[in-house]
């Protein structure tokens, strides 16, 4: 193939990739624009500080749902991230063992499991034996959804770390466990943080598991042992109602949910940049 034909093919490939990127961004931009347009009207001080009002009373907000969402996300992250990162580290270091093959296969299967199945499973083994819904059950359900995604992402990021770094640390007398944690894991931290953010973004808007576990709460509650409000549950309740004011509050809740995920992503990227330099894209 001549140089001219190579340049033509390369140019066509660039044009095709550009068109594909635009086609992927257009639906995302339309969704963000519509959510912003519909929800910005209900965004006021009362929305962030007041409880939901009964039907027929104007005003009200989602303060309890916003706090409840943060509580559930924190609980799920405290459960899912350590287990997922630890499992990914094991898969990267013991990649050829039968247990590693089994964990890798189960992680891939669980990644495609519908969230409602996770919710039913959590209800059967966490809610039903105790006899009531709870924020902890919701956090466990969402945390279990994070584990397979974080596991596979961590494993892939650790595979990117050059083998020479491991060999250099072992040659200096580092034990294998310390090499894995202090050298390999630290080198891949930016990519692992990105995978953790993807997992958080996935669970932040999940509704089905919370219907079977956290259930929702019209009152103020931050206890892990009691039902708790959450933005996805509140949005679901308001969206299926016949009241226009509740519909607008549902759009505002969706907008806040997007902003929460955005803030978590930006904060994590800045934290990674400040300690380890520019994050890996």
Description:
This protein is mostly helical and 281 residues long. Helices cover 76% and strands 0% of the residues. The protein has twelve helices and no strands. The protein has helices at 3-39, 45-49, 63-93, 98-111, 115-130, 135-160, 163-171, 176-187, 189-204, 208-212, 231-239, 244-276. The longest helix has 37 residues, at 3-39. It starts with a helix and ends in a 5-residue tail after the last helix. The model is unreliable at 274-281 (pLDDT under 50).
List the helices and strands and how they pair.
Elements: H1 3-39, H2 45-49, H3 63-93, H4 98-111, H5 115-130, H6 135-160, H7 163-171, H8 176-187, H9 189-204, H10 208-212, H11 231-239, H12 244-276
Helix pairs in contact: 1-12, 3-6, 3-9, 3-11, 4-6, 5-6, 6-9, 7-8, 9-12, 11-12
The H/E string reads HHHHHHHHHHHH
Strand content: under 5%
Compute the number of strand runs: 0
Percent in helix: over 70%
The biggest beta sheet is recorded as: none
Estimate the global geometry from the Cα principal axes. Answer: globular
Number of helices: 12
Oligomer status? single chain
Calculate the terminal CA-CA distance, rounded to whole Å.
Answer: 34 Å
Average predicted local confidence, pLDDT: 85
Computed over alpha carbons, the radius of gyration is: 23 Å
Low-confidence stretches: 274-281
Structural classification: mainly alpha
